[in-house]
Amino acid sequence: MHKVSVIIPVYNGDLYLRECLDSVCAQTLKDIEIICVDDGSTDSSYDILQEYAEKDGRVSVYHQENQYVGIARNNGLEHSDGEYVAFWDCDDTFEPDALECMYNRAKEVDADICQCGILELDNKSKIKAPRARNKHRRNIVKKEWFNRETDEDSILDCVDVCVWNKLFRRAFLDRTGLRFTEHRHAEDYWFSWVSACSAERITSVDKPLVCYRRLNEASQTGSIIDKKDITIQPDVCCLIARYMKEHDIFPERSFVNRFLVRIRVELRRYASISNQLAYVSYIQNNCMEELCLQLREPVFYYTPNLEQIARLLQNGTPEEVVGYINRETASALSGKKTQLSACKEENKKLRAEITRLKNRTPRGFLRRMKSAVMQRLKKR
Question: Can you tell me the distance from the alpha carbon of 173 to that of 177, in angstroms, rounded to the nearest whole number?
Fold first, then answer.
């Protein structure tokens, strides 16, 4: 048995695949297996995987017809034997000590799940920055471990919806029978949320160890959702709610607030207003009861904005819901732009002050004198 099995689904990822695999093969934790599942790629991804399998005996390559990322991860899991499992993506990169830090932490507190911080790489600007934490995650990293019982009102806000910043204990996955759904996207919702509410202990490494590539149009999360996909995310969330209720692990307040937050995220991924309206209409007509979206007291909601979204879902039209969320998003973006502009102006003032102070030094004085002499010589 290996300490960690790294499972990497690959679909047309040749642009960044080598960078990813280099970072995985260079992990300081050496007792690992790297299981790559090619999901019917039509580019050179499979050839690159074979190349790495020949160079590094820890790399195994499997092929399947295109069945999407969830099935690829499930197939990789069936071929794995690690004590812990990491589900990493082929367009991301990982700090050399990522597995070692998370594995040691998980073993230290006997955790079913260990999560780490995230760096985000803007694929256009190439700027890296740590992903901001909400207040729940800021509080949770101070704890040795947590679970649904210790933090029921905020458990789904204490974990990221993604799976690629986590280690999962293999025995925990086998005990719960937890596997990914076959949906084209939103498969992370099911796996992350159900595992978070099922785990006996979850712990965190307070360090960004995974570099997530934002604005990668080739990825599922970076792509614009087609109209045929508008029902997937709410349907998956209905499956989650149903499963949690049946297994008596449903954190109602946390679930409702988290779903309301994710509505805003989902709307940003649609290519047109008509698709946004169809998405909201589908929720209003099919999911309100199952997702427990009936109106509550204001204190039930994390923020007034989430309460307003819930109110509009209950009593408003799709146009009113979409209009409110889009205005809210535009206002937030405008605020960020204003902050950025203020920072640029402040930097400009600081640079001017630095220049002024430099010019007051003897070196600055000599430079100005030299310039003045050169000007006089030119005039002669």
Answer: 6
**Could you tell me the CA-to-CA distances from 139 to 11, 207, 330 in Å, in that order?**
37, 14, 29
Rounded Cα gap, residues 370 and 380, in angstroms: 16
Bridging pattern class, strands 113-122 and 128-130 = antiparallel
C-alpha to C-alpha distance for 159 and 173, rounded to whole angstroms: 17
Q: Which residues have a Cβ under 8 Å from the Cβ of 216 and sit 6 or more positions away?
A: 16, 91, 123, 222
> Quick one: average pLDDT of 365-371?
62
- Two tokens, residue 104: 């040691």
Separation between Cα atoms, residue 205 and residue 101, nearest integer Å: 7
Task: Enumerate the β-bridge partners of residue 36.
Answer: 8, 61
Nearest to 168 by CA among 131, 142, 194, 129: 194
Is residue 49 within 8 A of residue 58, CB to CB? The reply is: no
Q: Nearest to residue 163, comparing CAs of 138, 193, 184?
A: 193
What kind and span of H or E run contains 35? strand 32-39
Residue 157 has pLDDT above 70, yes or no: yes
pLDDT category at 86 given cuts 50, 70, 90 is very high
Residue 223 CB neighbour total at 10 angstroms? 15
Give phi and psi for 219, each to the nearest 5: -85, 165
- Rounded CA gap, 10 and 73, in Å? 10
At which residue do the structure tokens 């794995």 appear?
A: 80
What gap in Å lies between CA 220 and CA 9, rounded to an integer? 12
Beta pairing class for 32-39 and 93-94: unpaired
